[in-house]
UniProtKB/TrEMBL annotation:
The keyword Cytoplasm does not apply. The lineage of its organism: Bacteria, Pseudomonadati, Pseudomonadota, Alphaproteobacteria, Rhodobacterales. GO terms for cellular component: plasma membrane. This is Ribose transport system permease protein RbsC. Keywords: Cell inner membrane, Cell membrane, Membrane, Transmembrane, Transmembrane helix, Transport. InterPro entries: ABC_transp_permease. It is found in: Cell membrane. Its main location: membrane. The keyword Chloroplast does not apply. GO terms for molecular function: transmembrane transporter activity. It is a multi-pass membrane protein. The gene is rbsC_7. It comes from Pacificibacter marinus.
Amino acid sequence: MADQSIAAKARSSSDALLIFLKARTFIALILVFVFFAINAPNFMSTANMVIMSKHVALNAILAIGMTFVIVSGGIDLSVGSIVGLCGMVAGYLILNGIDIGLGWSMQFNTLEICLLVMLVGIGVGAVNGFLITKLHVAPFIATLGTLYVARGAAMLSSDGRTFPNLHGNPEYGSDTFRWIGAGEVFGIPVSICILITVGILAAYIAARTPLGRHIYAVGGNERAAGLSGIKVNQTKYFVYLFSGFCAALVGLIIASQLVAAHPATGDTFELNAIAAAVLGGTSMSGGRGRIAGTIIGACVIGVLSDGLVMMGVSSFWQTVIKGLVIIAAVVIDQAQQKLQARVALQAQAALGK
């Protein structure tokens, strides 16, 4: 009886610790928010909350695409460069259109510009998918290569210069471009509305569709997924297309917010997206992750970044702190997996008795 009592207490403490680990991202969000609310001047002001929510939205949209990639067992290092390239494409189309020769140029309205830019992002994602699925290039190497190609293409589009004054032209219907970054829908910033839409779509795909189950299966055990009839290559193609699509959205939003496009936009954004996904509980080994957790992770990164800026912390130290957060998230995730395995063994042992 005494042994049973000790075992029951051990299981109870393990279960409590497991619950705490699963809720770690939400707990971290509360802690960093309270810390900066106390220590950072004007952190709780309405203006800062609006600005911070827009920053969080950008990182969260990018991180949602990254979550699908990581869950499938891959990685996408090119998303930051896709952001910069797509912003430059939007700027080029607004200012120049497309030259069709004989002194004529094809001009586009805002909707057409957005569609073309999203096609560019999806196109880069398709290149990543092709390299990984057809040429069997490792995801890290393939997306590292497209990172440089996309960034170089962004630079070449303007010889490294900024496309300024993207106010658009009423004559062509491109003057509404700024609404994407500065507009509101029922008092909610458009960027937040886009995040909500993308988040709901991604969560539905992950939880309610065969495609979502296939993504988790491929990340959990690619060989077993293939033997069970899952189209592994098509599934991988989708996650990189979706990641490119999310990066294109972020590129459009940033160019609209700044009313300008610079080829260096999006530099190191991929690191923030990975950090948000991992912090939100996505396993770097694949097969596990939740969209809701990723969005909370993006909130933690956003609050941390803005709070450190408001406290006057050096950008160099901010980089160090973000790196430590990623390391801590991975270590805690591994601890959670080990604890879950131990709890499962304890449950099996209890049933055996």
